[in-house]
Amino acid sequence: MRGGRTAGVLALAAALLAPLGLSAAAPAAAASARTEETISVPVGPEPDGSAVALDATVVSPGGGARHPAVLLTHGFGGSKDDLLERARELADAGYVALAYTSRGFGASGGRIHLADPDFEIADGTALLDTLAGRPDVQLDGAGDPRVGAAGGSYGGATSLMLAGADRRVDATAASITWNDLSAAFVPGGSGGQAGVFKRRWTSVFFSRAVEASRGRADADPVCGRFDPGVCRIFLDAARTGTPSAPMTRLLSRHSPAPTLPAVQAPSLLVQGMRDSLFDLGQADATARTLQGRGVPVAVRWFEGGHDGGADEREGADLRTWFDRYLTDDGRGRTGLPVPAFRAPVPAGAADRSVTSSTYQGLGGLDGSSAQVPLAAGAGATILSPPGGDPAAISGIGAAFGAIGDAAESGSGSGSGSGGEGGGLVGYPLAALPGQSVAFDTQPLADPQQVVGTPTVRLRVTSTARDATLFVSWWRMGNAGPSSPRAQVSPVRVATTPGRPVDVTVPLPSGTYAPSAGSRWRVLVSATDAGFAVPTDARSYRIELADPTLRLPTAPAAAATDGRVDVPGLDPEVAAVGIGLAALLALVAAGFGAAAWRRRRTDRADTRADLAAVPLVVDDLVKTYRDGHRAVDGVSWRAEAGQVVGLLGPNGAGKTTTMRMLVGLIRPESGQVHVLGDPVHAGAPVLDRVGALIEGPGFLPHLTGRANLQAYWAATGRDPGEADLEAALEVAALGDAVDRPVRTYSQGMRQRLGIAQAMLGRPEVLLLDEPTNGLDPPQIAAMRPILRDYAAGGRTVVVSSHLLSEVEQTCTHVVVMNRGRVVAAGSVADLLAGDEASVVALAPGSDPARIADAVRADLRDAAEQVRVDPVAGTLTCTGGASRGRVVAAVVAAGGDVVGVSGRRRLEEVFLGVIGAGDDGAAGSAGSTGGTDASQESEEERMERLRKVRTR
Asked: What phi and psi values does residue 118 have, to the nearest 5 degrees?
C-alpha cells in the first residue's frame, strides 16, 4: 500500500505516453473492414487415390487493396480454430492471413503423414497457389505471392520445410520446433552409439493424434488417422523401446534439416528453455545451417515450451519480423529488425534479458566461460535395475505438457498448459538411492551469467558394452536442491566392460544466474521415466574426469533492461507528446493541490494520544448505493504484539472494513488511525502498513522475485529497507521464485502475496483470507510466522473463515455480523471462564435429550445449553456453577467422562452469530439471550444456515 499517489501519477503517464513508442510498418486495417472467408483447398490425393481437401479460413483487411500474406500452420493435434485469433491480429495489422487445418486433422481430409515432403509440405505449395490467385494478396510476380509462413512445433517445422521446398516463401517464423526429428526423439548419442529413445514423449505424440481422431468414420481404432506405414513404425518403437532403422530414416526425412540448404527466407527461430520435447539444440542446429548460407536469422529463447510457460513476446516479434521482410517499407531497410539473439535472464530483475548482435550458439555469446570447481570425491557405483524399474522422475513435461494445446497450436506460440505441473519434480524422485551420484560445486566466488550449455567431464566404467546416463543440475538452497527448469540431458556412450571411458556431458541448455556464494549440484542417474532404459541389470562406476564444471558466460554488457529506444519521432508524434506532457503537468498540479488540502486535514485529524496504538477503528459506517449498509458503526483496536482475527459470515462486512483500513474505500463517517495518523487513500502513514486484500495481483510475465522488486521500487523507498530475503523465506517458493508468475498455482501466488505484504517489515500487517489456496502443511507453517512477526512488537490483523486456524494463531478476535461488531476480546477470555462449563459425555450418550433435561433443571441459571453431537460435548453458560451443571447432567442420566471451562472458538462464534441474526446482537461482547438457548440443535443449525450473505 506504499507510494500510492506517486504510482498513480506514473501509471497515468505511462498509459498516455506508451503509444509514442509504437510504429507499424504494415498499414493498419480497421477491424470493421476485416473479412473472413471459409474455403476448401483441394490438395494431392492419398496413396490409395482418395481425394483430399483442406479446411481453411482467410482473414483479410478488406478495403480492396492488395496486402502481403501470412500462412499459419497449427501444432500437432490442433486445427485452424487455434489460429483464428492470430489471423485476425495480422489482418488488423494489414496482412491477409490464411489459417488452415493440416491433412489428417479436424475437418481436413486425408491422413497424418507427419510433415512428409510429399504430402503435408506439398499441401503448403497448393495453399501458396491459392494465395497467389486472390485479388487481395500482393504479388512479387505472376503466381508469386508476397508471403510469410509461421507456426509452432508441428507448424514450425512445416513452415521451415515449405520455405525449403517453395522459394515463394519470403520469410518464416518458427517456434518450439525441431531440426531433425530423429535427433529430437533419440538424443544423446556419443562415441558411435545411438541416442536414448524418448519413449514417453513418443507415446504422447502418437496418442494425441489418435485421440483427436475419435468419432470419425475414417479413423482406425488403433492408429486413428495416421498413415498405416507411419503408425506401424511408431507401434514397433513403443513395443521394443528402440527406434528401428525405418523409423530413424522417416523421422530424419520429415524434418527441416534436409531442406535447409534450399531455404532463402529470413527466419525467426523461437525456442523454449522449458521444453523436454524439442530443446534449444534443435533451434541451434537450424540457425547454424542458415547462418552458414548467409540467410538472415534471429534466435530468441523464452521461459517456456512444451513443458509449460507462455511466450509473452510472440505476437509482437512475429509482426516486427514480417513488417521487415514482407512490407515495401520494411524491404527498404537493412539489418535485422530484432536482436540476432535474445534470452531472458532469471535473475529477478524486471524485464531483463541478454541480447547480442550475433548468434554464437550454445557455447556462450563470445566463447568465454567460467570454470567452477567441483568438490573432489571418489565417485560412486550406481545400479541400472533389471527392467529399468523403478525409474527416476526428473520432469513431468510430457505427461502434463502443452502438446496440441495453446502452446503448439498457435502460430509461433510457445505458451503452455503445463502450468506448475510443467516439470516441477522433487529431488527425491530424481535422485533414487543406489541409482544416482551427485557432485557439488564449491560456493561460487563470483556471480555468473550463464548462456548456453554447461558441461561436465565424467569417467564412466560399465559392466556392459554401453552406458546410458541422465545428467541434470540443481541449485542447493536452504530447503534442499531445486531444478531450475526440471530438464535432463540423456547420454549413451560406448564402453568396454570394466574399462573406464571419459565423456564430456552437456547439461540442460539455457540461461542461468548463479549468485556469489551459491552452490550447485550435478546429478547423474542411471534411469529416467521419460526414456527407454536398458532392461538388463548393470552397474556404472561414475567419477569426475575433470573436477570442474564449465559454464559458458555472457559479458555484463550484453544484459539489457528490455526497454526499446525510439531513435527518431515523427514531428506530429512529438507534438502530441508535448501536448500530453502539458496535460500531465496539469494533472500533477491538480494532484499537488489535492495533496496540500489533504495534508491540512491530516494535521487536524492526527491523534497524539493514539501515537503508540498501531490500529484504531472508530465508528466506521459504509452504505452502498443500493441502500445496503455493509458496515454499521464498527469500532475496535489492535495493540502492538497482537494477532487479531477478524471473523464473521459472508456478508458480515469484513472485507469492506479491511478496504477502509487502507483507504481503498472512503467511509461515509468514522475514522481509522494508524499510530495516531489518519488513514485515507495515499496517506503517508500507509508506508507503515502491509496488506493483502482480496487476493494478490502480479505481472504474469515477471518472476516472483522481479514482482517483489518492482513492487518495492514503486514505493520509492530505499531498496535496502525491503528485507527481500526475509520475505522470500516466508513465500517458501524455492527455485520457483525465479520463474514467471503465470506458471504459479493459486497457493504459490498467495504465498508470494503474503511475502509482498511483509516487505519492509511494516508495523501493521493486514491479511484478508491469507490461507486461500494453501494446503494444510502450508497453513500450519504460516502460524508461527505470524505469531513471531507480532511478537517483535508489530501487529497482525487476519480476516478468515477458518475458525480452528484463528483459534491456534490469533491472540484476539473481533466477530462481525450484519456490519456490526457482536463480540470482541482475547481468545483466552472468550474460550474460558467460570461462566462456561464444557461436559464431555461418554460414547453412546444422547446429548440432545440430556440438554433438554439440563435446561429444565437449571432454568434461569443457564443462559445457553448447547450440544456438539460430533464431539459429544454439552456446553452450559450462565450463572450455574460447574458442580451444579455436572450434577444436572448426571441426574439426566448422562455418563460424564470429563469437564472443563474451555469452549471452542466455533461455539463462541456460532453462539454470537446465531443470536445476532435474531436481532439480539448489538453491543460488543453480547452472547445472546435465553430464547436461543431453548431451541433444539436442528433448529439452531437451520437458523444459522439462513444467515444472510451480501
From this structure: -80, -10
Cα dist from 64 to 26, 60, 135, 328, 941, whole Å: 16, 10, 8, 18, 71
Paired with 522 in beta bridges are 439, 473
Cβ distance 530 to 394 under 8 Å? yes
pLDDT digit string, tens, across residues 530-585: 999 998 999 999 999 999 999 998 876 565 544 333 333 333 334 444 444 444 44
Helix, strand or coil, per DSSP, at residue 124:
helix
- Sign of the CA dihedral with 189 first, then 194, 198, and 202 last: positive
For the beta carbon of residue 285, count every other beta carbon within 10 angstroms: 19
Q: Give the number of other Cβ atoms within 10 Å of residue 203's Cβ.
A: 15
- Contact assessment for residue 840 and residue 872, using Cβ atoms and an 8 Å cutoff: yes
Which residue is listed with cell 560445486?
441
Q: Burial code of 630-658, b = ≥16 C-beta within 10 A, e = fewer? A: bbbebebbbebebbbbbbbbebbbbbbbb
Among positive and negative, which fits the CA dihedral 630, 620, 808, 875? Answer: negative
Helix or strand run (H / E) with residue 87: helix 84-92
User: CA 109 to CA 52: how far, in whole Å?
Assistant: 5
pTM of the model: 0.60
For the chain, how are helix, strand and coil distributed in percent, rounded to 5?
35, 25, 40
From the number of C-beta atoms within 10 Å of its C-beta (0-12, 13-18, 19+), residue 334 rates as: exposed
Length of the chain: 950
Which DSSP state fits 635? Answer: E
Counting Cβ atoms within 10 Å, is residue 12 exposed (0-12), middle (13-18) or buried (19+)?
middle
Q: Is 579 in contact with 419 (CB distance < 8 Å)?
A: no
> Residues 152, 155, 159, 164: is their CA dihedral positive or negative?
positive
pLDDT in tens, 496-524: 999 999 999 999 999 998 888 889 999 99
d(CA 467, CA 188): 11
In angstroms, what is the C-alpha Rg of the chain? 34
Amino acid residing at 35: T
Evaluated on CA atoms 247, 252, 255, 258, the torsion sign reads negative
Distance between CA atoms of residues 74 and 313, nearest Å: 18
Enumerate residues 6+ apart whose C-beta is below 8 A from 874.
838, 839, 841, 847, 850, 851, 854, 865, 866, 867, 868, 889, 894
Q: Phi and psi dihedrals of 72, rounded to 5?
A: -110, 130
Strand order in the sheet with 896-900: 862-868, 873-878, 836-841, 896-900
Q: Which helix (H) or strand (E) holds 139?
A: strand 139-141
* Cell numbers describing residue 503: 565423456
Give the span between the Cα atoms of 325 and 147, in whole angstroms. Answer: 9
Q: How many CB atoms within 10 Å of residue 596?
A: 9
